[in-house]
Amino acid sequence: MTSQxxxxxxxxxxxxxxxxxxxxxxxxxDARNAMSRAMNQALAQQLAAAELDPAVKxxxxxxxxxxxxxxxxxxxxAAAGDGTVGALTIDEAIHVQRVNQRATxxxxxKMPKPTIAALPGPAAGAGLALALACDLRIMASTAILTxxxxxxxxxxxxxxxxxxxQLVGAAKARELYLLSERVSADEGLRLGLANWVCAPxxxxxxxxxxxxxxxxxxxVAYRYMKENLNRALAGGDIDDCLDLEATHHIHCGQTExxxxxxxxxxxxxxxxxxxIRAGLRPGSPADAPPTRCPESAGCWGIFAxxxxxxxxxxxxxxxxxxxxxxxxxxxxxxxxxxxxxxARRPWPGRRSGRRxxxxxxxxxxARRRCGRCAGRPRPGAP
Length: 382
What we know:
alpha/beta; three-stranded mixed β-sheet
């Protein structure tokens, strides 16, 4: 699928949809991606649309340039000289702020789809709150986190106190808010504020890998997982949580995601979701069940059914259950000398030599194979 650029109505927010992953980029690099009214409105609209769009499976929130988000535009507030009210009354400003917070940070937290914050640089104030509202966070090793509110005389907004307290506990949250100290990427990982830390030049690729893995997963199960977890965070009674889990668990058992994954487990093959995570396309040989060699009842070969596709995906790995170990066999054949040594020295207590990988997905015995398995040339052999 080619990447699709979405119109957000403002250059302050960029949106692209690729393979089920919606990437929202805060785009004010000259102001360290500080929030603007246009950015907040566009972000709220994109999140509301993504929640209902079946083509969107996962949301990534990131920042342009070397920063994630500096929070509110403090310079703009200082220039206006009226704090956060502007032309509104205090009551009107409070209502607007409440609606905006629920439509952005609240939506990221409660949305029934996985959300990821990718931090290429500093996240401060409300920007930190947006990152903490996401389900998962990945940071560049050069990024930092700071509440920053105390330094500019604010108490904090966008749910930062709630998210921080849930993640690090009340005592540490109080420390970080009252002192506004900077937290490095490694310290954030230790505290649980980040899930992964990587080199800055690896951030985009690592984020894409995680997002596509989630986009290929069971969407209904993800929705119920988030609802279960959010209910637990809200302090629900244990019986309420148990009842909710039972309802969701039984419902997931009726979905196509569960049926296909269970069938794949029985057939010892990757599920469609696993194939997507591995970079294979649905319908490739990774989805085909293994079949026994039809040539001879005495042959121990196992074949993977062939389907048209790119040469690299022509034959799938086959998982074989063995009495002593489990081994992933690929379509590569070991050198002939190694096969002969294995044939001369079978494993103790086994009827035959070691199972090996033969041409075109056949997994036979080094000592006992039918003529079809033994005589077939290796892929790519002259």
